[in-house]
Amino acid sequence: MPQMKVAIVPVTPFQQNCTIIWDDETKNGVVIDPGGDVDVIRQVLEENEVQVERILLTHGHIDHIGGAADLRDLLDVEVEGPHEDDRKLIERVADQAAQFNMPEVKTIEPDRWLQEGDVVSIAGLDFDVLHCPGHAPGHVVFYQAESRFALVGDVLFKGSVGRTDLPGGDHDTLIKSITEKLLPLGDDVTFICGHGPHSTIGEERATNPFLR
Known about the structure:
Oligomer: single chain
Helix content: 25-40%
CATH superfamily: Ribonuclease Z/Hydroxyacylglutathione hydrolase-like
Shape: globular
Radius of gyration: 16 Å
CATH architecture: 4-Layer Sandwich
Number of domains: 1
């Protein structure tokens, strides 16, 4: 199995966890959710000699996609994700920037929309795509079964869950996504979320107040 390396790069005033994953031997990797601060992301890529194969997006909120167009142009790679149900969010990225008093950003058209059951390659490993709406209609999660590892974006956090008061959000749908898609993955699965520290499915099942 490839030796997977992970770097978490907090970006934008929202301190969103842009995640870089690569194969330590080949240096081939991906960038997940480049929300902004592209120069900072580029520096981490250069320091680790990562050869970026693609950019992946979990959902269409500005703190996760704000730097995607600039990074795509810089690296000349394709963008995959999220699910097409987030098309309207992505098309309104300029409105999102204004809403949160962020600098103007470029909108982006993914080269590939992702669906439940798709598989994406990250650092030489196959990750299953899970469609997990609720925080955003087209939110997707990336799960690697053999490594017991997932990238869950803003669906689930350590001690919390994604907010549902933004356009397209729905609390009941979010909890359904967590209980039907994430919890069955198993308590030993470690996940990186969109903000804050990582956790495990088991820890959240036992202690997360939103899941009781």
